[in-house]
Design goal:
By secondary structure, the chain is mainly β. The chain has helices spanning 87-90, 241-244, 265-277, 384-387, 392-395, 428-437, 441-454, 468-491, 602-611, and strands at 2-5, 8-22, 25-37, 42-51, 55-64, 71-82, 94-110, 115-128, 133-144, 147-156, 162-172, 175-185, 188-193, 201-216, 219-228, 232-237, 282-291, 295-302, 307-322, 327-344, 348-354, 358-364, 370-383, 399-411, 416-422, 497-506, 509-523, 528-538, 546-555, 562-570, 582-590. The strands form 2 sheets. The chain has a 25-stranded mixed β-sheet that branches. It has a 6-stranded antiparallel β-sheet with strand order 26-27-28-29-30-31. It is found in: Membrane. InterPro entries: TamB_C (IPR007452).
């Protein structure tokens, strides 16, 4: 109302606003009282905002409607206010901002150049979109003209791991936002990207190091330098499904969903946001990664059949990613242990164990990636009589364990492949006899194909024996094993454990059958390695129907150069010596790579220096 007495103008007002919101954050019901202050030439504002039993705020100050002084000067005392109103200023870097804040703020300046200053205690959670990870903090935030300041803020991931953050969000009168956030994580979940058709890589990355995020509403840069820690799994898809479909010689089998399928509502929301932001925002990632044996790295070669190489190892890798360009990877990755999922025409599916010392070298463009990988697949029982039936010495011990060895060198996409056969439990003269019999590369490849396909040596056409019915049973049992293994790999998607089956028939077809469960895995933070075969065989010549082989290795050092090894192996499934049906062993191993003999005594020199 207006009240004019003598020469004094009095103007007072009151206003009630239900569910008052600021930047889409509902702060509560607001009661406003205002009156004209003739001396200040402005409206004095006294407002109370309250969300009953949750939050409240007091706003006092002046609104200056008249030029040239037009603007605001408001003091805000907030208690447990919803922090979502800050989402607008941070929207280019974080989303899902939730939490509460208590503190004092001043909103001031001309209407076209407003600014903030003050201090607040903030207890909030948020998601960093580019990393798809959530973080929480409960700390003080300083608000200064043109800048939000974060100083030594302790961030927590969803699992309680922490890191220290420093940085700022700079603005020009609450517009033209740019930011820089530097985080030093310690074993934190720093990336949790789900499989997405727009990204060639995904995975869960835990690490210790440094993460620097900077940018504005048009661009986002991430400089990441980390040493991987436990439970890290990173997958890179080397080619899209359409181009991979034509590659049918060597494949790697994947256990993940198809790339255009996201399995959670959260994933669908994320994909929609990427499609909305991507055309307008440049995103650049530069990752310096120190790969450790705690991390599993997987290269998917063919997303159609799902073929892949998966391994744990060491190396320094640099990954460059531009959402409007290509992915580049640099560095050398040395594999300590791993699996090569081999598929031939999607009929033969076998898990090759990658030998320690294998490596993959990245030199930028993925087409230039090279590999030097040695892997083997073990056929537990194959008859040498099929290979050399006329040899009387072999007839005494027909069934042997056979290692099918594969050596891959050269280009990752078209490697040079050399196959070989090893009989790990046989005498040197037997090894030599078999090698002489397989004197050409063609003969070697033929035997490897049969061993992988049906678990038997190929019988030459010039022999007097026939094996058509037994061969058919072997083909059926091998195909069934491959399909069961493929189903198990999709159901049990665990990088620490591999579970499979092996169904094979002997010389007498279905009356001489062997059924095994295959198990390999890691325990105690990947320090205990387990490999085992457990099963049943129905053979009239066997002394026992139980099949049980296992091998364990305990890494006494983190690098694995000193190991304790124990094993139990069944003898009579191959042949019997001295009536010992099983063989056990226990020992300690030391392994060290060196170029000169004096490097083996390096620890002695260090000890002498320490004593001095």
């Amino acid at each position: 109302y207006l009240n004019r007495t003598s020469e004094t103008l009095t103007m007072q007002s009151s206003l009630f606003v239900k569910d008052f919101s600021f930047n889409d954050a509902v702060l509560g019901d607001m009661n406003i009282k205002g009156k004209w202050d003739e001396e200040e030439k402005g409206i004095y504002l006294d407002a109370d905002i309250e969300d009953p039993n949750i939050s409240k705020a007091k706003v006092t100050g002046y609104i200056y409607p008249l030029k040239p002084k037009s603007g605001l000067d408001l003091h805000i005392q907030g208690d447990n206010l919803d922090v979502y109103f800050l989402q607008y200023y941070l929207r280019s870097i974080v989303s899902n901002l939730t939490g509460r804040t208590t503190g004092k703020m001043r909103l001031f300046g001309p209407f076209n150049a407003l600014d903030l200053e003050g201090d607040a205690k903030v207890n909030a959670g948020m998601k960093v979109d580019i990393l798809n990870t959530g973080f929480a903090f409960n700390d003080n935030v300083r608000v200064r003209p043109s800048e939000f300041q974060f100083t030594n803020i302790t961030l927590y991931d969803a699992e309680g791991h922490s890191g220290i953050a420093n940085g700022y969000v700079h603005h020009q009168n609450l517009k033209d936002i740019n930011y820089q956030l530097n985080v030093n994580p310690v074993n934190m979940l720093v990336m949790d990207l789900k499989e997405d058709a727009d990204l060639p890589f995904y995975g869960t990355v835990y690490g210790t190091g440094n993460v620097l995020l900077s940018g504005n509403l048009q661009a986002l840069n991430a400089e990441i330098a980390l040493a991987s820690t436990r439970n890290t799994n990173f997958t890179y898809i080397t080619k899209v499904a359409s181009s991979a479909a034509s590659n049918r010689f060597i494949k790697f089998i994947d256990r993940t969903p198809q790339r255009d399928t996201l399995t959670s509502d959260y994933g669908y929301e994320k994909k929609a946001k990427i499609e909305e932001v991507k055309p307008n925002m440049d995103i650049r990632l530069n990752i310096m990664a120190e790969a450790t044996p705690d991390a599993t790295i997987r290269l998917i070669m063919d997303p159609v059949s799902g073929d892949y190489i998966s391994g744990k190892g060491t190396g320094n890798l640099r990954v460059e990613y531009d959402n409007k360009g290509d992915v580049k990877i640099f560095g050398n990755y040395n594999i300590n242990q791993g699996i090569y999922k081999f598929s031939l025409q999607e009929v033969i599916r076998k898990d090759f164990i990658i030998n320690d010392g294998s490596s993959i070298n990245f030199s930028g463009n993925l087409l230039n990636t090279t590999m030097n990988v040695q892997a083997l697949y073990t056929v537990n029982s194959a008859s040498l009589n099929d290979l050399i039936p006329e040899n009387t010495e072999l007839s005494k011990q027909p069934n042997v364990r056979v290692n099918c060895k594969m050596n891959l060198t050269g280009s990752l996409f078209s490697p040079n492949i050399k196959m070989d056969i090893e009989l790990p439990n046989e005498r040197d003269e037997i090894q030599t006899l078999v090698r002489n019999y397989l004197s050409t590369e063609e003969e070697m490849n033929m035997q490897i194909l049969y061993l992988l396909g049906i678990g038997k040596f190929y019988m030459s056409d010039n022999t007097n024996r026939t094996q058509n019915s037994n061969l058919m049973s072997s083909v059926l049992s091998s195909t069934l094993s491959g399909q069961l293994n493929n189903m198990l790999s999709q159901i049990i998607d665990n990088t620490n454990w591999n579970i499979g089956t092996n169904l094979s028939t002997g010389d007498k077809g279905w009356t001489d059958v062997e059924v095994e469960g295959l198990l390999s895995g890691q325990l105690l933070n990947n320090r205990l390695l387990i490999n085992g075969n457990f099963g049943y065989r129905d053979s009239p010549l066997a002394t026992t129907n139980f099949v049980g082989d296992f091998e364990t290795e305990l890494l006494l050092t983190r690098a694995g150069d000193i190991r304790l090894k124990a094993y139990n192996r069944t003898n009579d499934r191959y042949y019997i010596r001295n009536n010992n049906f099983t063989k056990q062993g226990l020992g300690i191993m030391y392994k060290k790579d060196f170029d000169f003999w004096n490097e083996l005594a390096l620890w002695k020199r260090k000890k002498r220096k320490a004593n001095k």
